[in-house]
Amino acid sequence: MSPALPEGDPAPPDGALPASAARGADARAFGVYLHVPFCAVRCGYCDFNTYTATELGGGASLAAYATTALGEMALADRVLRTAGLPARPVATVFVGGGTPTLLPVDDLVRLLDGVRSTWGLAPGAEVTTEANPDSVTPDGLARLAAAGFTRVSFGMQSAVPHVLRTLERTHDPARVPDVVRWARDAGLRVSLDLIYGTPGESLDDWRRSVEVALATGVDHVSAYALVVEAGTRMAVQVRRGELTLPDEDDQAAKYELADDLLTGAGLRWYEVSNWARTPDDASRHNLGYWRGDDWWGVGPGAHSHVGGVRWWNVKHPRAYADRLARGLSPAAGRELVAGDTAALERVMLGVRIADGLPLQDVPAATRPAVAGLVADGLVDARAALGADGPRRVVLTRRGRLLADAVVRALVV
């Protein structure tokens, strides 16, 4: 079960945006997120808005999904034009899920062609799809690359069979090096996603996973701490005492180990949970989220943000398809991000990236707290003093482990 949608104001039936959304748009990049809500099986830890590929029918089915999503793109184009947004080619596309590569390759290509025909793609646009290692073939990856995809992010999660079983992941870890090679042979950049802190995972298990990922030669790795959300099967297992979650010290030790191994292999952190070999290897789409750019989220449960207006679509694919079929926006609710909320989000997102947060973006009332954060070893002293340029709040490694505490100090 995925989490409930946020509370917010009702969204207008036609999805219309206020005129304020167009202000400053020329200075913001525009991205598109495409949510594919289908998985072969639903993993016990996952709280994403996903459905098994065979449980839905009609316009919500896997077979009809690309056509339904293209309908939202047409609506999005009308909404943006009516609100006075300038024509902006899409800088990044991210196809997430779920398991997007459960869709036929032709449907993924149709979705990208829909983005291209609706808005155009900027020169050098980044186009990513997520994939499970057991959901791709060499031919399929080559066809995606030929159609304009530039990047694939594989959900590896772990190299250790007993950890994968606890996560209820179905792929064979021995397949990961093969799919990485296939993708690179097709000319795609490759990222591997890892999860640490699974119940029963030892520090040596985690070391093995990171080392196996690095042995493939990938140039991007994401490493996320497992968070067990209410309503998932794993949450029930924890509540019953069938699984025991690791403590914070275990999580911290695994983060530090990953950082040591990834940095030693030539990858540098550019966001708290992401490492890349070069700036070109970083996920530009995700950087757009952290930097407050505009994006339109297509699909059930997808979130969007344009010019300080944030909204979210209805979650269930049937409700999503029904609204579009009736000519209505699939948006379930929205909010204006302004004032204190905007300031909080700017700090919360800005401090997570290696470039840091300009000191001028920290509320004046809390700027004196920066000196204490430097003294506590949470913020880099040279960056805070402006030794190499404008003064910025840049997290140390200890600060990355305690990023939430840093944010609280800068906004309370």
Give a quick rundown of the structure.
Residues 24-268 form the Radical SAM core domain. It is found in: Cytoplasm. This protein is an alpha/beta fold.
Uncertain spans = none
- Order of strands in the sheet with the most strands? 9-10-8-7-6-5-4-1-11
Class computed from helices, strands and strand pairing: alpha/beta
The CATH superfamily of the largest domain is identified as: Aldolase class I
Average of pLDDT: 94
Q: Report the helical percentage.
A: 25-40%
The radius of gyration over CA amounts to 21 Å
Per DSSP E runs of 2 or more residues, the count of β-strands stands at 16
In the CATH hierarchy, the third-tier topology of the largest domain is known as TIM Barrel
| Total separate domains | 2
State the CATH class of the largest domain. Answer: Alpha Beta
Biggest sheet layout:
9 strands, mixed
The share of residues in extended strands comes to: 15-25%
Number of continuous helical runs: 15
**Outline:** globular
CATH architecture of the largest domain: Alpha-Beta Barrel
Q: Alpha-carbon distance between the termini?
A: 33 Å
Describe this structure in words.
With 412 residues, this protein is α/β, with parallel strands linked by helices. It folds into 2 domains: 19-290, TIM Barrel, CATH 3.20.20.70; 338-412, no CATH class. Helix content is 36%, strand content 20%. The chain has 15 helices and 16 strands. A 9-stranded mixed sheet has the order 9-10-8-7-6-5-4-1-11, sandwiched between helices. It has a 3-stranded antiparallel sheet with strand order 12-13-14, with no helix packed on it. A two-stranded parallel ribbon has the order 2-3. Helix 11 runs antiparallel to helix 15 (403-411). It is globular. 44% of the residues are buried.
